[in-house]
Amino acid sequence: MDESLDDIYKYIFGHIMTQMTATAGIKKHSQAAVDALLQEFCQLDSKSVFEPLDASMLTASQKQEALRAVNLIKEKRSGKLKGRTCADSRSQRSKYTREETTSPTVSTDALMISLMIDATKERRDVATADVEGAYLHADMEDFVLLKLVGKAVDIMCQVNPKYENFLSLRKGRRYFTYSC
Amino acid sequence: MGFKLNPYDLCVTNSQIKRKQCTVAWYVDNNKISHVDDTVVTNIIEKIEAKFGKMTVTRGKHHVFLGMDIIFNDNDGTVTILMKEYLKEAIADSGTDASKVAPTPAKKDLFTVDGVSKQLDKLQGETFHSIVAKLLYVSKRARTYAQLAIAFLCTRVSCSTEQDWKKLIRLLQYFNGTLDMPLILGADSLTKSKSWFDAAYAVHDDMKSHTGGATSVGRGAIVCKSTKHQHLLFLYAVDSGPFFPVIVM
Taking the model in full, what pTM does it have? Predict the structure, then answer.
Protein backbone atom coordinates (compact mmCIF):
# COMPACT_ATOMS: atom_id res chain seq x y z
CA MET A 1 0.00 0.00 0.00
CA ASP A 2 2.84 2.42 0.93
CA GLU A 3 4.65 1.84 -2.35
CA SER A 4 1.64 2.94 -4.32
CA LEU A 5 1.11 6.10 -2.27
CA ASP A 6 3.37 8.16 -4.55
CA ASP A 7 1.37 6.95 -7.52
CA ILE A 8 -1.84 7.92 -5.77
CA TYR A 9 -0.50 11.46 -5.17
CA LYS A 10 0.51 11.65 -8.80
CA TYR A 11 -2.92 10.58 -10.02
CA ILE A 12 -4.75 12.91 -7.64
CA PHE A 13 -2.83 15.97 -8.77
CA GLY A 14 -2.81 14.77 -12.35
CA HIS A 15 -6.49 13.98 -12.72
CA ILE A 16 -8.71 15.01 -9.83
CA MET A 17 -7.31 18.47 -9.24
CA THR A 18 -8.12 19.74 -12.69
CA GLN A 19 -9.58 22.95 -11.29
CA MET A 20 -7.17 25.49 -9.87
CA THR A 21 -7.00 29.13 -8.92
CA ALA A 22 -6.14 31.63 -11.62
CA THR A 23 -2.71 32.21 -10.04
CA ALA A 24 -1.94 28.49 -9.99
CA GLY A 25 -3.36 28.13 -13.50
CA ILE A 26 -1.22 30.93 -14.91
CA LYS A 27 1.84 29.46 -13.19
CA LYS A 28 1.11 26.05 -14.72
CA HIS A 29 -0.21 26.95 -18.15
CA SER A 30 1.10 30.53 -18.57
CA GLN A 31 -0.44 32.21 -21.66
CA ALA A 32 -3.06 29.50 -22.24
CA ALA A 33 -4.53 30.20 -18.78
CA VAL A 34 -4.48 33.95 -19.40
CA ASP A 35 -6.31 33.38 -22.70
CA ALA A 36 -8.94 31.27 -20.90
CA LEU A 37 -9.54 34.04 -18.36
CA LEU A 38 -9.57 36.61 -21.15
CA GLN A 39 -12.31 34.65 -22.87
CA GLU A 40 -14.33 34.42 -19.66
CA PHE A 41 -13.97 38.14 -18.96
CA CYS A 42 -14.88 38.97 -22.58
CA GLN A 43 -18.12 37.07 -22.02
CA LEU A 44 -18.82 38.95 -18.78
CA ASP A 45 -18.10 42.23 -20.53
CA SER A 46 -20.06 41.57 -23.72
CA LYS A 47 -23.14 40.36 -21.84
CA SER A 48 -23.07 43.44 -19.58
CA VAL A 49 -23.08 41.25 -16.50
CA PHE A 50 -21.77 44.06 -14.28
CA GLU A 51 -21.23 47.79 -14.07
CA PRO A 52 -17.90 49.19 -12.91
CA LEU A 53 -18.10 51.49 -9.90
CA ASP A 54 -15.94 54.32 -8.66
CA ALA A 55 -14.63 53.00 -5.32
CA SER A 56 -14.56 56.54 -3.87
CA MET A 57 -18.36 56.64 -4.13
CA LEU A 58 -18.76 53.58 -1.90
CA THR A 59 -19.04 53.65 1.87
CA ALA A 60 -16.44 51.93 4.04
CA SER A 61 -18.87 49.16 4.94
CA GLN A 62 -19.80 48.60 1.28
CA LYS A 63 -16.12 48.27 0.44
CA GLN A 64 -15.69 45.82 3.30
CA GLU A 65 -18.72 43.78 2.32
CA ALA A 66 -17.81 43.60 -1.38
CA LEU A 67 -17.32 39.95 -2.31
CA ARG A 68 -14.05 38.90 -3.81
CA ALA A 69 -14.34 37.58 -7.35
CA VAL A 70 -12.76 34.12 -7.41
CA ASN A 71 -11.18 33.27 -10.74
CA LEU A 72 -10.56 29.63 -11.54
CA ILE A 73 -9.04 27.69 -14.37
CA LYS A 74 -10.57 24.34 -15.24
CA GLU A 75 -8.80 21.77 -17.36
CA LYS A 76 -11.54 20.05 -19.32
CA ARG A 77 -11.48 16.39 -20.38
CA SER A 78 -10.59 17.47 -23.90
CA GLY A 79 -7.48 19.24 -22.56
CA LYS A 80 -8.98 22.66 -23.24
CA LEU A 81 -8.67 25.29 -20.52
CA LYS A 82 -11.76 27.14 -19.33
CA GLY A 83 -11.88 30.23 -17.17
CA ARG A 84 -14.51 30.54 -14.45
CA THR A 85 -15.46 33.50 -12.30
CA CYS A 86 -17.62 33.32 -9.21
CA ALA A 87 -18.08 35.22 -5.96
CA ASP A 88 -16.44 34.01 -2.76
CA SER A 89 -18.62 32.23 -0.22
CA ARG A 90 -19.30 35.15 2.12
CA SER A 91 -22.95 36.10 1.92
CA GLN A 92 -24.26 39.61 1.47
CA ARG A 93 -27.81 38.48 2.03
CA SER A 94 -28.95 35.68 4.30
CA LYS A 95 -31.66 33.07 3.92
CA TYR A 96 -32.06 32.09 0.30
CA THR A 97 -34.94 29.74 -0.36
CA ARG A 98 -34.28 26.36 -1.93
CA GLU A 99 -35.92 27.50 -5.18
CA GLU A 100 -33.45 30.39 -5.40
CA THR A 101 -30.40 28.20 -5.02
CA THR A 102 -31.23 25.23 -7.24
CA SER A 103 -30.75 24.87 -10.98
CA PRO A 104 -33.29 23.43 -13.40
CA THR A 105 -32.11 19.91 -14.22
CA VAL A 106 -33.99 17.19 -16.03
CA SER A 107 -34.16 14.00 -13.95
CA THR A 108 -32.03 11.09 -15.09
CA ASP A 109 -35.10 8.85 -15.37
CA ALA A 110 -36.93 11.37 -17.57
CA LEU A 111 -33.87 11.81 -19.76
CA MET A 112 -33.40 8.07 -20.28
CA ILE A 113 -37.08 7.59 -21.11
CA SER A 114 -36.96 10.55 -23.48
CA LEU A 115 -33.86 9.15 -25.24
CA MET A 116 -35.55 5.80 -25.61
CA ILE A 117 -38.69 7.40 -27.08
CA ASP A 118 -36.55 9.45 -29.51
CA ALA A 119 -34.86 6.28 -30.72
CA THR A 120 -37.94 4.07 -30.88
CA LYS A 121 -41.00 6.14 -31.59
CA GLU A 122 -40.88 7.85 -34.96
CA ARG A 123 -37.03 7.68 -35.06
CA ARG A 124 -36.92 11.38 -34.22
CA ASP A 125 -34.30 13.88 -35.29
CA VAL A 126 -32.39 14.90 -32.17
CA ALA A 127 -30.33 18.00 -31.51
CA THR A 128 -28.33 18.83 -28.41
CA ALA A 129 -27.49 22.46 -27.77
CA ASP A 130 -25.41 24.27 -25.19
CA VAL A 131 -26.36 27.83 -24.24
CA GLU A 132 -23.21 29.90 -23.89
CA GLY A 133 -22.86 31.50 -20.46
CA ALA A 134 -26.35 30.42 -19.41
CA TYR A 135 -26.17 31.92 -15.94
CA LEU A 136 -25.19 35.28 -17.36
CA HIS A 137 -28.61 35.60 -18.99
CA ALA A 138 -30.41 35.59 -15.64
CA ASP A 139 -31.67 38.89 -14.29
CA MET A 140 -30.57 39.65 -10.75
CA GLU A 141 -32.57 42.08 -8.68
CA ASP A 142 -30.16 42.19 -5.73
CA PHE A 143 -27.41 44.77 -5.49
CA VAL A 144 -24.21 42.72 -5.27
CA LEU A 145 -20.76 44.23 -5.05
CA LEU A 146 -17.80 42.29 -6.34
CA LYS A 147 -14.13 43.15 -6.16
CA LEU A 148 -11.51 42.05 -8.65
CA VAL A 149 -7.88 41.87 -7.50
CA GLY A 150 -4.49 40.64 -8.68
CA LYS A 151 -3.62 39.55 -12.18
CA ALA A 152 -7.31 39.47 -13.09
CA VAL A 153 -7.38 43.30 -12.94
CA ASP A 154 -4.84 43.53 -15.77
CA ILE A 155 -6.72 40.95 -17.82
CA MET A 156 -10.02 42.79 -17.34
CA CYS A 157 -8.40 46.08 -18.43
CA GLN A 158 -7.04 44.24 -21.46
CA VAL A 159 -10.60 43.16 -22.34
CA ASN A 160 -11.91 46.69 -22.18
CA PRO A 161 -9.65 49.69 -21.43
CA LYS A 162 -12.62 51.64 -20.01
CA TYR A 163 -12.10 49.75 -16.72
CA GLU A 164 -8.75 51.54 -16.23
CA ASN A 165 -10.76 54.59 -15.08
CA PHE A 166 -12.29 52.65 -12.19
CA LEU A 167 -9.13 51.21 -10.68
CA SER A 168 -8.37 51.92 -7.03
CA LEU A 169 -5.40 51.26 -4.81
CA ARG A 170 -5.50 49.50 -1.47
CA LYS A 171 -2.35 48.65 0.43
CA GLY A 172 -0.43 49.23 -2.79
CA ARG A 173 -2.55 46.69 -4.73
CA ARG A 174 -4.76 47.63 -7.63
CA TYR A 175 -8.35 46.50 -7.52
CA PHE A 176 -11.63 47.42 -9.07
CA THR A 177 -15.18 47.16 -7.79
CA TYR A 178 -18.30 46.47 -9.77
CA SER A 179 -21.94 45.73 -9.16
CA CYS A 180 -23.74 42.76 -10.72
CA MET B 1 -44.37 28.15 -29.29
CA GLY B 2 -47.21 26.29 -27.55
CA PHE B 3 -45.07 24.16 -25.27
CA LYS B 4 -46.55 22.70 -22.10
CA LEU B 5 -44.41 21.71 -19.14
CA ASN B 6 -44.47 18.04 -18.30
CA PRO B 7 -46.21 17.80 -14.88
CA TYR B 8 -43.89 14.96 -13.77
CA ASP B 9 -40.65 16.71 -14.66
CA LEU B 10 -40.62 20.48 -14.95
CA CYS B 11 -37.46 20.41 -17.05
CA VAL B 12 -39.24 18.63 -19.89
CA THR B 13 -41.69 20.37 -22.16
CA ASN B 14 -43.80 19.08 -25.05
CA SER B 15 -45.69 20.58 -27.94
CA GLN B 16 -47.66 19.18 -30.88
CA ILE B 17 -46.07 20.54 -34.04
CA LYS B 18 -47.15 19.26 -37.45
CA ARG B 19 -49.27 16.71 -35.57
CA LYS B 20 -46.19 15.15 -34.02
CA GLN B 21 -44.74 15.63 -30.58
CA CYS B 22 -41.75 17.90 -30.09
CA THR B 23 -39.88 17.43 -26.82
CA VAL B 24 -37.36 19.78 -25.23
CA ALA B 25 -35.49 18.71 -22.10
CA TRP B 26 -32.87 20.84 -20.36
CA TYR B 27 -30.18 20.42 -17.77
CA VAL B 28 -29.30 24.01 -16.87
CA ASP B 29 -27.63 25.16 -20.11
CA ASN B 30 -27.68 21.83 -21.97
CA ASN B 31 -30.77 21.23 -24.08
CA LYS B 32 -32.09 18.24 -25.99
CA ILE B 33 -34.62 18.95 -28.71
CA SER B 34 -36.35 16.20 -30.66
CA HIS B 35 -39.02 15.95 -33.34
CA VAL B 36 -39.57 13.62 -36.25
CA ASP B 37 -39.12 16.52 -38.69
CA ASP B 38 -35.62 18.04 -38.67
CA THR B 39 -36.89 21.41 -39.93
CA VAL B 40 -38.99 21.73 -36.75
CA VAL B 41 -35.87 21.08 -34.65
CA THR B 42 -33.97 23.73 -36.64
CA ASN B 43 -36.82 26.19 -36.12
CA ILE B 44 -36.84 25.61 -32.34
CA ILE B 45 -33.06 26.10 -32.17
CA GLU B 46 -33.36 29.39 -34.07
CA LYS B 47 -36.03 30.60 -31.65
CA ILE B 48 -33.91 29.73 -28.61
CA GLU B 49 -30.88 31.40 -30.19
CA ALA B 50 -32.90 34.54 -30.86
CA LYS B 51 -33.50 34.80 -27.13
CA PHE B 52 -30.23 33.50 -25.63
CA GLY B 53 -27.66 34.01 -28.34
CA LYS B 54 -25.66 31.58 -30.43
CA MET B 55 -25.54 28.02 -29.06
CA THR B 56 -23.14 25.16 -29.64
CA VAL B 57 -25.41 22.71 -31.49
CA THR B 58 -24.86 19.03 -32.34
CA ARG B 59 -27.08 17.36 -34.94
CA GLY B 60 -27.10 13.83 -36.27
CA LYS B 61 -26.93 10.41 -34.69
CA HIS B 62 -24.00 10.88 -32.31
CA HIS B 63 -24.22 13.25 -29.35
CA VAL B 64 -22.21 13.95 -26.24
CA PHE B 65 -24.72 15.02 -23.61
CA LEU B 66 -24.05 15.36 -19.86
CA GLY B 67 -20.94 13.21 -20.15
CA MET B 68 -22.74 10.45 -22.06
CA ASP B 69 -21.87 9.34 -25.57
CA ILE B 70 -25.28 8.82 -27.12
CA ILE B 71 -25.65 7.05 -30.46
CA PHE B 72 -29.05 6.60 -32.12
CA ASN B 73 -29.25 3.41 -34.16
CA ASP B 74 -31.88 3.95 -36.83
CA ASN B 75 -31.65 0.42 -38.19
CA ASP B 76 -33.07 -1.22 -35.05
CA GLY B 77 -34.65 1.75 -33.26
CA THR B 78 -32.36 1.67 -30.26
CA VAL B 79 -30.11 4.13 -28.50
CA THR B 80 -26.63 3.25 -27.28
CA ILE B 81 -25.16 5.01 -24.25
CA LEU B 82 -21.47 4.89 -23.32
CA MET B 83 -19.46 6.69 -20.63
CA LYS B 84 -16.01 5.41 -21.47
CA GLU B 85 -14.12 8.60 -20.61
CA TYR B 86 -15.57 8.75 -17.09
CA LEU B 87 -14.57 5.15 -16.44
CA LYS B 88 -11.08 5.69 -17.84
CA GLU B 89 -10.68 8.69 -15.54
CA ALA B 90 -11.84 6.72 -12.51
CA ILE B 91 -9.43 3.89 -13.36
CA ALA B 92 -6.55 6.34 -13.78
CA ASP B 93 -7.41 8.18 -10.53
CA SER B 94 -7.22 4.93 -8.58
CA GLY B 95 -3.89 3.89 -10.05
CA THR B 96 -5.36 0.54 -11.04
CA ASP B 97 -3.12 -1.62 -13.19
CA ALA B 98 -4.60 -1.09 -16.67
CA SER B 99 -3.75 -4.65 -17.71
CA LYS B 100 -5.87 -6.27 -14.96
CA VAL B 101 -9.50 -7.13 -15.51
CA ALA B 102 -12.16 -8.83 -13.36
CA PRO B 103 -15.08 -10.92 -14.62
CA THR B 104 -17.71 -9.45 -12.25
CA PRO B 105 -18.21 -6.09 -10.47
CA ALA B 106 -17.94 -7.62 -6.99
CA LYS B 107 -17.17 -10.79 -5.09
CA LYS B 108 -19.73 -12.56 -2.91
CA ASP B 109 -18.34 -10.87 0.21
CA LEU B 110 -19.37 -7.40 -1.03
CA PHE B 111 -21.53 -6.64 2.02
CA THR B 112 -19.09 -8.13 4.54
CA VAL B 113 -17.41 -5.44 6.61
CA ASP B 114 -14.10 -6.36 8.21
CA GLY B 115 -14.04 -4.51 11.52
CA VAL B 116 -10.27 -4.79 11.89
CA SER B 117 -9.36 -3.61 8.39
CA LYS B 118 -7.10 -0.55 8.52
CA GLN B 119 -8.76 2.82 7.94
CA LEU B 120 -7.57 4.60 4.80
CA ASP B 121 -5.47 7.69 5.42
CA LYS B 122 -7.05 11.09 4.72
CA LEU B 123 -5.68 11.46 1.21
CA GLN B 124 -6.57 7.97 0.05
CA GLY B 125 -9.95 8.26 1.76
CA GLU B 126 -10.65 11.41 -0.25
CA THR B 127 -9.58 9.64 -3.43
CA PHE B 128 -11.91 6.76 -2.56
CA HIS B 129 -14.77 9.22 -2.01
CA SER B 130 -14.06 11.05 -5.26
CA ILE B 131 -13.91 7.89 -7.37
CA VAL B 132 -17.07 6.44 -5.80
CA ALA B 133 -18.91 9.71 -6.47
CA LYS B 134 -17.75 9.58 -10.09
CA LEU B 135 -18.88 5.97 -10.43
CA LEU B 136 -22.22 6.81 -8.83
CA TYR B 137 -22.83 9.31 -11.64
CA VAL B 138 -21.94 6.65 -14.22
CA SER B 139 -24.04 3.97 -12.52
CA LYS B 140 -27.18 6.09 -12.76
CA ARG B 141 -26.74 6.36 -16.52
CA ALA B 142 -24.65 3.97 -18.61
CA ARG B 143 -23.75 1.30 -16.04
CA THR B 144 -26.99 0.69 -14.23
CA TYR B 145 -26.20 -2.96 -13.56
CA ALA B 146 -23.21 -1.98 -11.39
CA GLN B 147 -25.44 -0.08 -8.96
CA LEU B 148 -25.33 -2.83 -6.35
CA ALA B 149 -21.56 -2.58 -5.81
CA ILE B 150 -21.58 1.22 -6.06
CA ALA B 151 -24.56 1.59 -3.69
CA PHE B 152 -22.60 -0.38 -1.10
CA LEU B 153 -19.37 1.59 -1.66
CA CYS B 154 -21.38 4.81 -1.23
CA THR B 155 -22.21 3.74 2.31
CA ARG B 156 -18.48 3.45 3.03
CA VAL B 157 -17.15 6.83 1.93
CA SER B 158 -17.07 8.31 5.43
CA CYS B 159 -15.31 5.31 7.01
CA SER B 160 -13.46 3.67 4.13
CA THR B 161 -10.96 0.94 4.92
CA GLU B 162 -8.37 -1.03 2.97
CA GLN B 163 -11.02 -3.72 2.48
CA ASP B 164 -13.30 -1.15 0.80
CA TRP B 165 -10.41 0.04 -1.36
CA LYS B 166 -9.92 -3.55 -2.57
CA LYS B 167 -13.63 -3.76 -3.41
CA LEU B 168 -13.35 -0.52 -5.36
CA ILE B 169 -10.32 -1.79 -7.26
CA ARG B 170 -12.20 -4.99 -8.08
CA LEU B 171 -15.07 -2.93 -9.51
CA LEU B 172 -12.68 -0.77 -11.53
CA GLN B 173 -10.96 -3.86 -12.90
CA TYR B 174 -14.35 -5.06 -14.05
CA PHE B 175 -14.97 -1.72 -15.79
CA ASN B 176 -11.48 -1.94 -17.26
CA GLY B 177 -12.40 -5.17 -18.97
CA THR B 178 -15.76 -3.90 -20.20
CA LEU B 179 -14.97 -0.33 -21.26
CA ASP B 180 -16.70 -0.71 -24.62
CA MET B 181 -19.82 -2.40 -23.27
CA PRO B 182 -22.72 0.03 -23.82
CA LEU B 183 -26.19 0.38 -22.38
CA ILE B 184 -28.66 -0.21 -25.22
CA LEU B 185 -32.21 1.01 -24.79
CA GLY B 186 -35.14 0.15 -27.01
CA ALA B 187 -38.84 -0.56 -26.77
CA ASP B 188 -41.19 -3.25 -28.02
CA SER B 189 -44.17 -1.18 -26.98
CA LEU B 190 -44.33 2.20 -25.27
CA THR B 191 -47.52 1.25 -23.46
CA LYS B 192 -46.27 -1.91 -21.78
CA SER B 193 -43.52 -1.82 -19.21
CA LYS B 194 -42.15 -4.60 -17.09
CA SER B 195 -40.62 -4.19 -13.65
CA TRP B 196 -38.59 -6.58 -11.58
CA PHE B 197 -37.70 -6.00 -7.96
CA ASP B 198 -36.46 -7.93 -5.01
CA ALA B 199 -34.94 -7.40 -1.62
CA ALA B 200 -32.46 -9.23 0.55
CA TYR B 201 -33.40 -9.11 4.21
CA ALA B 202 -30.84 -7.95 6.80
CA VAL B 203 -27.85 -8.60 4.58
CA HIS B 204 -25.89 -5.58 5.69
CA ASP B 205 -23.57 -5.42 8.65
CA ASP B 206 -25.99 -3.13 10.51
CA MET B 207 -28.86 -5.56 9.80
CA LYS B 208 -30.42 -3.32 7.17
CA SER B 209 -31.86 -4.89 4.04
CA HIS B 210 -30.95 -4.20 0.45
CA THR B 211 -33.52 -3.48 -2.24
CA GLY B 212 -33.12 -3.38 -6.00
CA GLY B 213 -35.23 -3.25 -9.11
CA ALA B 214 -35.43 -2.39 -12.78
CA THR B 215 -38.05 -1.32 -15.29
CA SER B 216 -37.87 -2.04 -19.00
CA VAL B 217 -40.09 -1.50 -22.01
CA GLY B 218 -38.35 -4.03 -24.20
CA ARG B 219 -34.62 -3.69 -24.42
CA GLY B 220 -32.40 -2.52 -21.57
CA ALA B 221 -33.56 -1.08 -18.25
CA ILE B 222 -34.63 2.55 -18.42
CA VAL B 223 -35.02 2.89 -14.65
CA CYS B 224 -32.86 1.02 -12.15
CA LYS B 225 -32.56 1.39 -8.41
CA SER B 226 -30.41 -0.30 -5.82
CA THR B 227 -30.48 0.93 -2.26
CA LYS B 228 -29.57 -0.07 1.23
CA HIS B 229 -31.77 2.53 2.85
CA GLN B 230 -35.26 1.35 3.47
CA HIS B 231 -37.24 3.96 5.27
CA LEU B 232 -39.56 1.45 6.83
CA LEU B 233 -38.54 -0.39 9.96
CA PHE B 234 -39.00 -4.14 9.71
CA LEU B 235 -39.73 -5.52 13.12
CA TYR B 236 -40.30 -9.06 11.99
CA ALA B 237 -38.20 -11.39 9.95
CA VAL B 238 -40.33 -11.11 6.83
CA ASP B 239 -39.32 -10.74 3.23
CA SER B 240 -38.92 -7.02 2.60
CA GLY B 241 -39.53 -7.42 -1.13
CA PRO B 242 -43.14 -6.18 -1.39
CA PHE B 243 -42.08 -2.85 0.06
CA PHE B 244 -39.94 -2.08 -2.95
CA PRO B 245 -42.60 -0.11 -4.86
CA VAL B 246 -43.15 2.11 -1.82
CA ILE B 247 -39.45 2.87 -1.57
CA VAL B 248 -38.48 3.05 -5.20
CA MET B 249 -41.55 4.36 -6.98
Answer: 0.77
